[in-house]
Amino acid sequence: MSVLVLIPAAGMGRRMGASVNKQYLNLLGRPVLAHTLSIFQSHPLVSSIILISPKDEIAYCRSEILERYGFDKVRDLVAGGDQRQDSVRNGLLAANASDEDSVLIHDGARPLLASRHVDALLHQTRQSGACVLAVPAKDTIIEVDDAQITATPDRRRLWQVQTPQAFRADLILKAHLRAASEGFQGTDDASLVRRLGHPVAVLEGSYRNIKITTPEDLALARAFLELKEDG
């Protein structure tokens, strides 16, 4: 059994106010994406990585990320699709993984994942076939319609899902192919697996595992990395 990591890296930096893909923004001297790839490049259980990029950024990504930083575990650089779900499906098809392999799907803009969470996900995936990282919601969450509160769900039942999301290879491929054939767009990869009737386990992640979406997120990631470097 092998461990394959799929990294969709196609998110533009609109909320960052940036003109480039947010994965290429500078974070302590290296692109965000380089930090993310380093997590899996150095993990002893990861066999290979497939990076998924917009078609017109593939040459740049290869020269400025893969070759510049020596990410030799990246065995394929795949063109993405119109939506994230399409991009992940492209990566799964290119992977040609064995049924029993483990597949981790991780956002290119989450550069602060802890190695111990990769270990925990892989262990759980071998047991149940599907699991995700999540953290309990810290704030009260409201539902809003037309600028009015319509509901206040019980916060004790609300968790914020993160990546990686981990699956047995045959299960996640089946989920994506069925969703595509039926024209279904899910909220994340786990929602496609749950649609098959397969349960998805939840492991508690870390509030440090942020997705860089806004300038504030970039500043927070910088602070976390500086703290780590300072011990």
Give the topology.
Elements (H helix, E strand, L loop, with lengths): L2 E6 L17 E2 L2 E2 H10 L6 E6 L4 H12 L4 E6 L4 H12 L6 E4 L9 H14 L1 E7 L6 E3 L2 E4 L7 E10 H13 L7 H7 L5 E4 L10 H15 L2
Parallel strand pairs: 1-4, 1-6, 4-5, 7-11
Antiparallel strand pairs: 2-3, 6-10, 7-10, 8-9
Helix pairs in contact: 3-5, 5-6
How would you describe what is shown here?
By secondary structure, the chain is an alpha/beta fold. The chain is built from 7 helices and 11 strands. β8 and β9 form a beta hairpin. The longest helix has 15 residues. The protein starts with a strand and ends with a helix.
Question: Structural class per helix/strand content?
Answer: alpha/beta
The proportion of residues forming helix, as a percent range, comes to 25-40%
What count of structural domains? Answer: 1
Instruction: Tell me the distance between the termini.
Output: 35 Å
Q: Quick one: overall form?
A: globular
Task: Assign the CATH superfamily.
Answer: Spore Coat Polysaccharide Biosynthesis Protein SpsA, Chain A
User: Strand share of the residues?
Assistant: 15-25%
| Largest sheet properties | 7 strands, mixed
Offer a quick outline of the entry:
The chain has helices at 32-41, 58-69, 84-95, 115-128, 169-181, 189-195, 215-229, and strands spanning 3-8, 26-27, 30-31, 48-53, 74-79, 102-105, 130-136, 143-145, 148-151, 159-168, 201-204.
